[in-house]
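A quick aside before the break. I want you to see a complete sequence-to-structure record at least once, exactly as it would be stored in a machine-readable document. Don't worry about memorizing anything.
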Amino acid sequence: MAVLKRYGLLICLLPSLNSVVNAYIEGLYCGQENCYDIIGVGRDAAKSDISSSYRKLAKKWHPDMHKDEEKKEDAVKKFQRIANAYEILKDEEQRNNYDYMLDHPEEYYSHYYYYYRRKMAPQVDVRIVIAVTITVISIIQYFSAWNNYNTAITYFSRDHKYRHRALEIARNEGLLSTGKKRDRRSKEEIKEEEESVVKQIISEKMDIRGSYSKPSYKDVLWIQLVYLPLYLTNLGCWWLRWVWKFNIKREEYGQDEKAYIMRKKMKLGQGQWDAIEEHEKEKFFEKELWKEENYGKWKEVQEEEMKKKMAESSRYKMYRRYMKKGGPGQMTFGPD
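That is the input. The structure line, written in tokens, reads:
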């Protein structure tokens, strides 16, 4: 009976003994050794105690402290084990995962998952990644804006209206060379000078606004993020002012408010609104398009005119014939 009791006790202890054996997994953390034992501290040791013990062991087993080749090889192995254990225990997340493995050795596959997830995860601070990303976007944004601006200047320099005005300004201000000096040069040189002067005048002396305006450092993402609290504050103040003046006190709209309402009704951005010619804007004010009933009538007229233009357009006629024949799903066997 006593023998049976002893065997029964051993059978009960087998799962716990198996857990102790399997608590150390080859290839994970410190392998078949205990990281705390390698550093020479207990599981409840503070981070400062772990660092202090590591420094003592590192000084003792650093390969440079050993001149003999055999001892140096042994020191290299021990130093690598100590450094590996320290890297695991000094990191709060890795230490927690390691302690969990010691307490729950039966969760074999989850230990592999947590270990390699941590190993494969990028070690760079997320804040640095965000800062670098914003910086790259800001640089691309700034240089793209300048590229678009230069493209727009080139386009305007070839436009008859802008070019004529620019040449007129250049002649009045004497910016174009004349006389014998000009005659000595080739036609290509004269043309290059004229092109350069036209672009300079369009850029500096003509009112180019909206999407074609000169880029500013304030438009890049970094600066906009810095000024975001100020923008939000101004927006809140603007909204409160609008509610107080026009919703509560029922005051009449000013020119800026009228322009804002018309722009919103037309679904135009600030850049698109600024690009509209002044005489066109004056027509909007004359027709009082900020009023709902006036805007509705004006929109109907615009839609009718657009339909007429489309009906007269050869491309639109081709498109209608194409749609009558079946559109994208039609089956054809020839060019017509």
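Two observations worth writing down. Confidence is low (pLDDT under 50) at residues 1-21, 329-336. Residues 127-221 form one domain. We'll return to this after the break.
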